[in-house]
Structure formats: C-alpha cells, structure tokens
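Hi everyone,

Forwarding the result from last night's run.
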Amino acid sequence: MKRIRIRALLCGAATAALAATGLAVLTTGQAAGATAGTTALSNRWYAAAPYLMPTDNNPPDAGAIMDATGLKAFQLAFILAPNGGGCSPTWGGTSAVSSDTAVSSVISSIRAKGGDVSVSIGGYGGTKLGQACSDSASTAAAYQQVITKYQLKAIDFDLEEPEYENTAAVAHEIGAAKILQQNNPGLYVSVTTAGTADGTGWFGKQMLNEAKSQGFTPNNFSIMPFDGGFSGAAAQTSALTNFNTILQSTFGWDAATAYAHEGFSGMNGRSDTGEYFRQADFQTVLDYATSHHMDRFTFWSLNRDRQCSPPDNGTTSGTCSSVPQSDWEFAKYAVTFAGATPPTTPPTTPPTSPTPPAGTCTATAWSSTATYTGGATVSHSGHTWQAQWWTQNEEPGTTGDWGVWRDKGAC
C-alpha cells in the first residue's frame, strides 16, 4: 500500500552459514540480556501502538503525545536494507542501526515516561532485508541486531510493495519472523499487509500461504484497508469481515480464532488516493474491532495526527491529516482499544513539535515557485534534498522515501 513517507557489508556465504548454525544460541542469549533491561507492556498496548516516524515527517514529541492522550506504545518506522546494498539494518535505508543514537534517544524518553516501542520493518518502497539477505537465517540475524540494540518486546513485519511480490523475499521474511519468535520468548509479532475489498489481494493471500507452509503464526495478521477504493468505515469493516474468512480458510480456524489473530491498520484523515477516514470512521472501526475481539488496532500515523492549515486543501500530507481535528485526536482511539481512558482535558503545556535541526546549508533554499529537474539540490528545514525527477511546488520532507525528494541528511 502506498503511504506518505513524509518517512555495510554484504551478507555473504560465510555470514549466512554462521547465522544458520549459530543463530539460536546467539539470539537466545541476546534476548535474555535485552529482557533484563526494560519492562514489557501488556500485549494490548503493543497491539494499539500507532506508527511514528522518529526522524522524518516533522516528528512530534512522543512525550507530549503521551501526556495529552494517555498513549503508552509507539510503532517506530521503518527498518530497511542499506540503500547502497547489504544485509544490515538501517533506518530508512540511510542510518545504520549499529551506530544510531537519535532513535535510541527517542526510545529512552518514551520509556522514561512508562511507555515502550515496537519497531516496524519494511513498509512501502525501499529495499527490504528480505530482498537483500540470502536466506531466512541471515534476515533474522539482521533483525536480531535491532531487537537486541533497542531491547524490543515487539516487532512488526510490514510486508508491502515491492517486497511482497517477491516470493523468495517473503519466504525470507516469514522464516525470519518464525526464528525471532522462537529465539525471543514472549516477543509480540505482527504482520501487516495490503487490504482490498475482499480482504487482501493475491500477494497477501500468497504471504498467508507461506506462513502456513512454514508453520508460523504471529500474534496477528493486519490489513490496511485504504488506498484501494475504500469509502469510509463501512468499506473497511466489510474488508475486515472478508479477511476473517480468508484467515479461516487458510489456517482452518473458526471465526473467533481468526478474529483473535486479525488486526486493522488504518490511515487517519486523507489517504494517498484521496479517500477520507474521519473520526467517526475510526470510532466505527474501533467498535467493530472490540466487539469482534480483534487483536490489533493501529494507524498511519502520529506524524499526521494534527490539523493542516487550512484543515483540508485537497492534498495528502505526511505531517497533518487534512481533516479538521485537535492534535493527537486519532491517537485516543488506539488508547481506548488498549483498554485505557484518554484524558478529557488538554495538558497545561500544549504539545509542540521539535525545532528542525540547525545547520549551515550551502545549497540554495527550496522555493515553491521554482522548477527542479532530476539531480537538483536544495536546502529545506536544515536538511539537504536532491530531486529524483522533474518537480514544482512539492515541499521536501512531505513526500517520503518514495517521492520526488531524497533526504541527503542534515546540513
């Protein structure tokens, strides 16, 4: 599913062989060390964690969101293979997990307030580790680095374009998920994929069949019923009902068991294709999810959970919802799903977004009236950006990794 992402050594034969023979012993020890470092939340909180891009899309202050809504869990996005190739985890293809301090700081601040995070791998676009690594064992070894570094109790496999069209890559991801589940006891594992009117498409069904063939059952399989001709909550709940039938037929479950392994991942406000999912739609889907005892209710994204100015200008943004709302209003539906009661009064200090990174930029400042061709370089919000193709009036930082502007880093 297309979502606004306004978001290095090769794994050679020796590495793969080592992972295949020694992964179980290594990761069990690592997981034990990680478990000692942080206290897990209940599974219900990890199931209700909305997506947050911690370094892109004008990231909001997670602590302020916690204060305003009662939210405790965040789904940090996205782990990818390095843009230059290789089988090692990075944030967005550019920032190596091994040397990361920025996301670690965000996680520490969340945990200091009694919360926790899950990390999402994959997403729409970019090169996924399932594509870059040679097999399931080496893919799992790469993801284990993420689990160990951040002492994770939850992880999300977001299997989308183009990876889920690659049979071998999906087999690597599902196999890796199974290995991680085995070697990290109690790890909450969600698998998120595209939603269609009949539940999920051909590639989604093939992914479920791959999981069945490998004997892998995560906490839930979640679909994203948006960007596919959906029109409000009725279309979404219909897709969830149809997806339940698919889970039943694939795994031989009854309806209740299938719902207990089913999840919803929505998009708040205006979707990439111009669909609208307003607060009333979220409430309807939330009522459906809770009444059917579904396992997960989340959305893309907290970066978008604030009002645009003007509230709706007919475009989709990665930093606001394009519908009238108060800040973090959609997050409160996730809090309710987790079983908590959101605050009814705003905090004394209104939530604010952090100041864009400072720096001295040498590239010419981006202009909404200028025309740019592929390769053109500009500066904007303290970062340097490079155009991938012809563009005009597309603001850097609002179109994501799949869009026209590539973030070259802080000045």
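Residues 13-35 form the longest helix (23 residues).

Cheers,
N.
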